[in-house]
Amino acid sequence: MSEAKMKREKWVCQPAQFVPHDNAADLAVSVARRVAEVAAQAIRERGEFRLALAGGETPRRCYEQLRHLPIDWSRVQIFFGDERCLPVGDAQRNDTMASNALLDHVAIPPTHIHRIAAERGADEAARHYAGLFDQTAALDLVLLGMGEDGHTASLFPGNPATELKDAVVAVLDAPKPPPQRVSLGLDTLRQARQRIFLVSGAGKRAALQAMRDGAALPAARVGSAEWHVDRAAMPEGH
């Protein structure tokens, strides 16, 4: 057994479920394979796979790998963990990135892609998207990234939206542009059957260390999760 594999199995056995990777490319390949595994199990057990996508560069690499894997996309329902209040088709929107990297390349019915209408403004879009979660079952898997400040989705440290109990929340005055966003609420993320974080880059190391030391940053509050982390982001001593 390789040293890398031994380390990976050691981390997976720990409560935090840290899975180390040599680099962001290896991380993307590994998580794509995990998504395909979870998809197959969900479809086998429940007839469909309900997946919430994350934005960001590291998830994008994962999506580019995922489109080549054998998944029955006719049985997949796609949701989004958050969205920026920008016009439809804007390059900075998460659904634009997901379409370019994945959704335009697989045989998924358009009606199975549940976009957040963030172009309507944060409040209206949040109310509209929350209706989907009033009528449907829990998500099978949520993919999540993490910012250098420990935020995840669009739930930022100290922002009032992070403390709301709504299924979907309007995020105002976000510290990163654009200031208006829409995000799944913490309770919705916690209710998902599984959560996977994709974290890469040295800029994430401090936040990751803070959470391992007990800091209640938003990314640490979503519940148990698999944390796939590249070597650059890994705190010292791990």
Summarize the structure in words.
The chain is of the alpha/beta class and 238 residues long. It has one domain (17-206, 218-230): Rossmann fold, CATH 3.40.50.1360. It has seven helices and nine strands. It has helices at 3-13, 24-46, 57-66, 94-101, 122-135, 186-191, 205-212, and strands at residues 18-21, 49-53, 76-80, 82-84, 141-144, 168-171, 181-184, 194-199, 226-230. The strands form two sheets. The chain has a six-stranded parallel sheet with strand order 1-9-8-5-2-3. Strands 4-7-6 form a three-stranded antiparallel sheet. Helix 7 (205-212) links the parallel strand 8 and strand 9 (226-230). Helix 2 (24-46) crosses helix 3 (57-66). It starts with a helix and ends in an 8-residue tail after the last strand.
